[in-house]
Write a structure and sequence with these properties.
Blueprint (H helix, E strand, L loop, with lengths): L2 H12 L4 H11 L4 H16 L7 H13 L5 E5 L16 E5 L3
Antiparallel strand pairs: 1-2
């Protein structure tokens, strides 16, 4: 299993409030696009910080801080033009590239 997919699974295991979010994501994307999923996580975490009670933003930050303490290699992901994150956009070689470098 690739590290980015494992990171998504680890997050969902640590923060069960994201189970529905990952299920919807996998259905919509026909698999895990971790960089797209983590954008949804950012939105949910900010909403929680601002008062939404869907997930506790502290649990998410605790998980991410723990990941920073681990020796995690660089993770780079690419979504080709055909993926839903770029649907409706045009341009040669259009892609979404995300790189995480975790110390």
């Amino acid at each position: 299993m690739e590290r980015d997919v494992q990171l998504v699974q680890d997050l969902v295991a640590a923060v069960p409030g994201f189970e529905d979010l990952v299920d919807v994501h996998v259905f919509n994307e026909h698999g895990v696009l971790s960089h797209v999923f983590f954008w949804d996580v950012v939105q949910e975490t900010v909403a929680s910080f601002l008062g939404s009670d869907e997930t506790d933003w502290r649990d998410t930050l605790r998980f991410l801080e723990e990941q920073l303490r681990l020796d995690v290699p660089e993770v780079t992901t690419v979504s080709p033009r055909s993926s839903s994150v770029c649907r409706g956009r045009t341009g040669p070689g259009m892609a979404l590239l995300t790189t995480w470098v975790l110390p």
